[in-house]
Amino acid sequence: MLEEAAGELFLEQGYARTSIADITQRAGVSRNTFFNYFTTKADLLWFAFDDTFSCLNDTLIAGHTGSVGVREAAIGALRVLAGELPPENVALAFANAEPMGLVDELKQAAALRTATIGAAIATFAVSRGVPPMRAEVAGLAYAGALIAAIGAWSRAGAGNHCLQALLEEALEPIQYALP
Questions:
Q1: More confident residue, 171 or 175
Q2: How far apart are CA 179 and CA 98, in angstroms?
Q3: Is residue 45 within 8 Å of residue 109, measured between CB atoms?
Q4: What is the pLDDT, as a whole number, of residue 135?
Q5: Is 177 exposed, middle or buried (0-12, 13-18, 19+ CB in 10 A)?
Q6: CA gyration radius for the chain?
Q7: Which of 43, 111, 132, 148 would disulfide-bridge 38, Cβ 3.0–4.6 Å?
Q8: Is domain 43-174 annotated with CATH 3.40.50?
């Protein structure tokens, strides 16, 4: 309810002019309820994304079995997770960043998620023997490809396009960053 209310309000009156009180009133919940689930109103945009990608480490480890290499495990994990991401508020935000007035907020939040995902991939790669600097560069490149694909998917109409196909396109120039 909170995500839906926030998305509607961001479209109607813009991100900056929408307060947490506005969101809770529209959703019919208390301010305390909001803070039980979210730290900031920006978290509402990324909730489905953060929820979907919270299992990245488990997916990386599960994908790294037998003869599957580090690259295949990392790219495989991103593919699986991209297949699970619903077209929720993050897609709405990317597609309507200017009218919602959240271009800068979206860039900052995307950069934070790129860094977080990149670090998870790098940590996994280092634990599998990849030199730290290469692992860090590759992790950030793979994470950047994911965020770029999500942006393209959102702007093209998330419900009408396949995120996994756009991820493949985004990964193509960097697919061999990890061994």
A1: 171
A2: 39
A3: yes
A4: 97
A5: buried
A6: 17
A7: 43
A8: no
